[in-house]
Amino acid sequence: MNDNQTPIRSLKGIGEKTGKLFEKLGVSTVEDLLCYYPRAYHAYEDPVPVGELKIDSTCAVAGVLQRDACVKRFQHIQIITVSLKDETGTLQLVWYNMPFLRNTLQAGTYHVFCGKVVKKNNRLTMEQPEIYTREGYQAVRKTMQPVYGQTKGLGNKAIAKAVAQALDLRQMERDFMPSALRAKYELAELNFAIEHIHFPANKQELLFARKRLVFDEFFLFLLAVRRLKEKRENQNSSWVIKLSVEVKRLKERLPFRLTKAQEKVLNEIEWDLSGGLVMNRLVQGDVGSGKTIIAVLALLHVAYNGCQGALMAPTEVLARQHYEKMSKLLETYDIPQKLVLVTGSMTAKEKKTAYEKIKSHEADIIIGTHALIQEKVVYDKLALVITDEQHRFGVGQRELLGNKGQRPHVIVMSATPIPRTLAIILYGDLDISVIDELPSNRLPIKNCVVDSGFRKKAYDFIDKQVAMGRQAYVICPMVEASEMIEAENVLDYSKTLKEMLPHISISYLHGKMKAKEKNQIMEQFAAGEIKVLVSTTVIEVGVDVPNATVIMIENAERFGLAQLHQLRGRVGRGEHQSYCIMINCGDQDGTQKRLDILNRSNDGFYIASEDLKLRGPGDIFGLRQSGEMEFQLADIFTDANLLKTVSEEVNLLLEEDCELEKESHQELKQRLDSYLQKSYEKLNL
Length: 685
What we know:
Blueprint: H1 16-24, H2 30-34, E1 40-43, E2 58-64, E3 70-74, E4 77-86, E5 89-96, E6 110-120, E7 123-132, H3 134-140, E8 144-147, H4 156-169, H5 179-184, H6 190-198, H7 203-232, H8 245-253, H9 260-274, E9 280-285, H10 291-304, E10 308-312, H11 316-332, E11 339-342, H12 348-359, E12 365-368, E13 382-387, H13 395-403, E14 409-414, H14 420-426, E15 431-435, E16 446-450, H15 455-467, E17 471-475, H16 486-500, E18 506-509, H17 515-526, E19 532-535, E20 548-553, H18 561-568, E21 579-583, H19 591-600, H20 604-614, H21 640-656, H22 666-681
Parallel strand pairs: 5-7, 9-14, 9-15, 10-12, 10-13, 11-12, 13-14, 16-21, 17-19, 17-20, 18-19, 20-21
Antiparallel strand pairs: 1-8, 2-6, 3-4, 4-5, 6-7
Helix pairs in contact: 6-7, 7-13, 7-21, 7-22, 9-10, 13-22, 18-20
C-alpha cells in the first residue's frame, strides 16, 4: 500500500476520537489530509494604527493596555473585553468563554492582537483575536499561516499540526505532468506545490503552488471528459423513441404556454430521442426557467413508447418533491403511466418493493437520488436518464450513467449560469441547450443591498410578510477564520431571531445535520409549518416553496455572485411579489460594485459574465463559487483563462497520443485511471 494511503490515525496524537472528527471533514488517510487544502490564509503583517483599521479586514494591532480586562456574564456566555488605545483611536477587543485571559490581559502589559475587525454597536471591535507577546509576533511576522475548514472539537491549530506531520512522513509522488508542459507554463514540481499550498512563505510562493494544482485539476478533468466524448460520439441508440401524440395533447392542455426557449429545447430533445443516436445533452436554464416540465415531457415520450425513464435529483427532499408534483400531474390529466420513488432513507422493505416494480416494469418513470444508479437497481428497457444534479455532477457519474442498461439517452439539467465559452469546455462530452427566457407569469424579484444598520427594518419586513401568510429564508455565511463551525453560527442567529420575533415559528438548517433531520425541516417549511428558516447555503439546491417571498442574505459580500444568484432563486417561484435583501457588511473596494450587479439584474447569465470581468487573481480565496464538477482549488470563473489554456493543451496531447500509450505519458495515464477510480468512489458505489 502506498504510504500516503495509511489511515490518518497512524499519525502521532490522532486517536480514535480525533480520527472521527477528521472523518467528518472527509479526511481518512494521509493522502486525504495532504489534499485538504486551506480555505484561506492569514498573513501576519506589521501592526496597523487603530485609526487606519478597515472594517471586515484581518490585521494586527499592538499597544500597552491601560486597564485590566473586564469579565461579564450574558446568559450562559462569559464575555471578556479590553480596550486598546493609541494616538489614532480606540479598539474594543472581545473574547467569549475564555475567563483565564484576565490573568494575561492586565494593565501595563504590551501585546500584539491579531484578528478580524468588525463594527459592533457603532464601535470598532476585534472578536476572538489571537494574542502575542512582542517576541512571539516577531517570530510569525511576514509569514502566511493556513486557515482550514473546521468542525466542532477540531480547530485550526490541530489540523495544521497534522498536515505538517503528514508532509514530513509522506511518500514523495512521481510527477505525472509531461515535462514539456511544466516548462512551457512554468509549473511548480508536484511535491513542492503540495507542500507550499499548505505552508507558503509568501503570496508569490502560494500563487506558484496554486497555479500548478489548479492546472492539474483542470487537466485531469478535461482528459476524462475528452475520453468520454470519444466513447460517446456517434453511438447508435438501442432506443429510437417515436414522438407521442399523447405528449403533444398534454402540452396543449397545460394551464400555461411553454416559452419559445422551452419549445426550442424540447424540439432538440425530441430530435435526439427519435434520431437513432444516443443523446448526451446538457440543458442549461436559469433558476425558475422551467426545466422540470421539459424533463417531464421527455420522460412521458419514453414511457408512451413502452420504455422506462429515470429522473435523478441531488437531494431526497427534491426527489420527493419531483415525485409528488409529477404524481399530481399524471392524476390531473388521467395519464396511466406509473411512478416509483427510490431514496436512501427508505426502509429495506420499501426499497425491495420499489426495485421489484422497476425490474418487472410496473414502474414506467423512476424518481430518486443517485441511489438510482446503484447496481441493485435493475431496469427493464431504461431508455432515458435525466439528472438534475446542478452542482454535483462529476466525471464518474457521467460515465456511469452512460453505461447503465443498454446505453440510455442522457440529459443533464443545470441551473448554474456558466458562460457558453466555458460550458463548451467543461461539458465537452455533451451537446448544449439553453433555456434563456423566464415564463411570462414570473414577477421579477425586487432586490436591495443594504448595510447591517438595516437589519431591524428587515426583521419588521419579514414580520409583515409572515402576517400576510408568506414565508422567509435567512441565510448565514460559513464562519471564516474561526474555531466555530457554521452550525453554531446558524444556531446563534436563529436564537436571536426568535427573541426578536417570538410570535413566529422559526427553525434552522445546516449541512452538519443528519439527512433525516434536514428532510423533516424542509418538509415542514414546504408545508408552511415553519414560517422563517435560518439556514446555511445548504438550501441553495433546495425545494420549491412558492409561498416563500423573502430571502435575507447575511454577509452577502462573502459569497460569489453565482452563488448569491442561486440562493436568490429560492424565492420568486409563486404568484406573489418576492424580495431579496442582501446585507453587505464589507468595507472593501469593489464589494458594493459586485453586489450592485445582482441588484440591477435577475439574469444569471449576465451576472456570471459580469462577475468574470470583475474578478482577478486577487480574488482567489474566500470567494469560491463554482462547486460544480470535482474541483477543490480551481474556480471556473476566476481561473477561466487557465481553463481555456488547459483545454487547448489537452486537445493537442490527445491529437498526438489519443490512448496515452507513449512511454513519456505512462505516469499521466496511471494518474488519470486513479482520478477516475476516485470519481467512482465518491458516488459510494
